[in-house]
Amino acid sequence: ASVHRLDKPTSGLLLVAKTKPAMVDLTRQFAERRVKKTYTAILNGVPNEPAETSISVEDAIALGVDVGSSSVDGDGNGEALKWQLIDHTLDEKSAVTVWRPVKYVKSLKARDGILTLVDMKPKTGRYHQLRRHMSWVRECPIVGDNAYDGGGDAISLRGRGLFLCSNKVNLDHPYYNTEVGRKEWDALPNDEKWANGTLCLSEDGSMVEVHASIDLPPKFQSFLANEEQRQQKFEGGVDDIDTETTNDEIISPPPSQM
């Protein structure tokens, strides 16, 4: 049975319990907010990154979200990696999202001419939390979100559905952390124990963890590449553009965001 739900237009990972004990354990983990989820989305525009809501990797880990262990930005400049915190009540309940921009791509249709690829780590799981936080707090709705994009020019970006994907989840294994299950796991040969990289031990070695991830749907790459291609043609660029190369290019944010 399904342990949690995704919004109908959201793509990605869905947890399904194969046994009743697993269902009970996983439900408890969700209730205790021990399951760490990652979503990736494309935003219409460039979200502000206020200094007062900037947090370090250590701060994010203390909140209980999965931001990895590296505290240095991966672009090679040696700067400390920063995340943004949204702590904004929804429906009179606490709602917390940690997020950061990953890539900026020019687009003729986007607000201010730029689309932003972001990683988002929800600490809580309120109704449409990520969609509402990005639209209402950061004023940059997710592309294709016909409920929160505000209509107007954003309608031109609705043609390919919602660009929001649940692409990574970390949790404690519901069976291998029981007394019997842990003995069974310890006895497995190494070529079976790690399940092709999906299973690992916690830092202190006390828990067997599941780290599941998937690639983004192909529409993410093709949409960003096509939007940048149109922009380059409009600016008088090369007619024939290698979309794979285009998709890997990262542009700097506008001066106001630096």
Descriptive notes:
By secondary structure, the protein is of the alpha+beta class. The chain is 24% helix and 22% strand. The chain is built from seven helices and nine strands; from the N terminus they run E-H-E-E-H-E-E-E-H-E-H-H-E-E-H-H. The protein has helices spanning 20-31, 57-63, 129-137, 179-186, 190-193, 218-234, 243-248, and strands spanning 11-12, 36-44, 54-56, 82-87, 96-106, 114-122, 164-172, 199-201, 208-213. Strands 1, 2, 3, 4, 5, 6, 7, 8 and 9 form a nine-stranded mixed β-sheet that branches. The radius of gyration is 20 Å and the shape is elongated. The N and C termini lie far apart (46 Å). Residues 239-258 have low confidence and may be disordered.
